[in-house]
Predict the structure.
Amino acid sequence: MKKRKIGIALSLVLAAGTLLGACGKSGDNKGNDTAKGGDKEKAFSVAMVTDVGGVDDKSFNQSAWEGLQKFGQDNGLKKGVGGYDYQQSKSDADYSTNLNTLARQNFDLVFGIGYMMQGAVDEIAKQQKNKHFAIVDSEVKEPNVASILFKEQEASFLVGIAAAMTTKSNKIGFIGGQESEVIGRFEAGFRAGVMAANPKATVDVQYAGAFDKAELGQSIASKMYSSGVDVIFAAAGATGNGMFKEAKDRKAKDPNANIWTIGVDRDQSDMGPDVVLTSAVKRVDVAVQDIAKKAKEGNFPGGKVTLYGLAEDGVVAAPINSKVANKADIEKAIKDWTDKIKSGAVKVPATVDELKDFKVK
Amino acid sequence: MSKRLSGIITPIIAVLLGIIVGTIIMLVCGYNPISAYTALWNGAFGQVYYFGEVVRQVTPYILAGLAVAFAFRVGLFNIGVEGQFIVGWLASVWVGVSFDLPKIIHLPLAIIAAILAGALWAYIPGILKARLRVHEVIVTIMMNYIALHVSNYLIKNVMTNHKDRTGMIKDSASLRSDWLQSMTDYSRLHWGIIIAIVCCFIMWFLLERTTKGFELRAVGFNQDAAQYAGMNVNRNIILSMVISGAFAGLAGAMDGLGTFGYITVKNGFTGVGFDGIAIALLGGNSALGVFFAAILFGALKVGALNMPLEAGVPNELVDIIIALIVFFVASSYIIRVALNRFGKKDVK
């Protein structure tokens, strides 16, 4: 009995071994083919590495990938090696391997999406000096790395204006993801905007400590709404999805409630057509396309920080919800402030420290 | 003899079944399994760089697997390897950043700090289990969250001034080697693999060749019998948790002093500790088994990153295959238990 079982097991192992062996051989040939194909292509090729959020995070990474796809289509590239492609990271340890893999596949430019990749980009740029990299939301001081930063505070300032003009209770909420420089810019700009448009309004600032905890976002939003807050801005990635849910739930119970939310990174009006006032949009796609285009033309801004603000169309405030009573007034105010910021008459604070010195005439 | 043989064959069959079912899933979803597995292979061993990365990934996996396996041999389920891993990582980087010492003192000091941190983190559930009979699974899970958030707080507020990551550790505390890196075309391979292999030997020797190891195993087999034989069960429970935590903390030092050289504020768990559970299970809780299982998991994890690029297959598929392997290892255990039962009935 026992012997037969072992016999069956052994034959299974052998059979599987042969099968897999065959796979290996035919596969090897194919691997060589693709490598050859890659060599033939001479077109400019770009790729990106997502952070742990993944390429379909409905926000940051997704926007970058959309930009890359657009760039690829405009330049007649195909998805894959020699064209445009992306690699997803599942943990912090994957950043380095992914960046290296793409650089090794001879992509002309490799984007690291997100400040979490700063260490990995820094290190690999030093090792592979003849390859070009770009990093979003952080700065790497290497001659072959282009750093992309956004003036998030400018978009936040504008949505702050909108929030201050919409609130009736003069209580406004801000939900941050993890405390960091980037989210600090969102917070400072938002509070400055509220202050500029409605000095009587107060902003309740809370950090969730995570970008991927929707349930936490919901409980924070619930507490804020219960305390009389009627407009909340969440700069917290997927954590903000909880805020949308809470707002929709409250609106469903009481359709006349004055409950509003403000989205982040992309126009999130699809998250709740009745409750999303506007969004502080960060055009990662515009920035990615712009840098790729510059690199293709031979003007790669290596070793430099490229700033994307209102003036560069890198950040904008999404269209105001048509259900807001004073929509026209808000739009006019936003336009006025946009002009002032673009002309340099107003400098929006980028940190909470700068906010203390911020004054509106 | 047959027990030993089945102990070797069971995990191999589980791996093969996992791969076969993975193939079926790929076929059903319309992917080409041959190109997928080729990409997986190329991504793990196709270039010397990837080989270096596999070894780099295997290093903490071995130690995390040993940590889980060691506790398991004493009848404890240490789910807290993840947390012990994080505090070990933190402690090693802390020592690595804040001291200026010659390498011969600094590097061992950083490693010992990681071991102590991990051991301390496991000592708490150990003593709660031994003294108050609090179940170690619950305590260790909670300790994971405490480790995650406390280390995030310390990184942000104590080690740096509201930054997301610490500075690089000093060279004198680093496990990295330019020689190993240049050999493997700039992979992050470091000397930690030697430590991991030595630890495999230590675990085997401790459990199989020492009196203390016999006691520990005896507690694992049957606590009451061990007590009756005059062994101090409580002390052995605490000791096993401490040693298990020491392995886990050491795994953290591998990432802290080797792979990264710094620690970042973490949004969530790293997964190394949880993968360690699967590795220990596949490796049958033996030192040699853990070693081979860690190599398999490391190769799968690193190779998977190449699958979307080369074969257009999402790398989540490897997670499915790993889950299937674990499932088959677990269910083969059930089958074996069932077979043994029937066997006994026949004898009667």
Observations:
- DSSP finds eleven helices and twelve strands in chain A.
- Chain A touches chain B through 49 residues (CB under 8 Å).
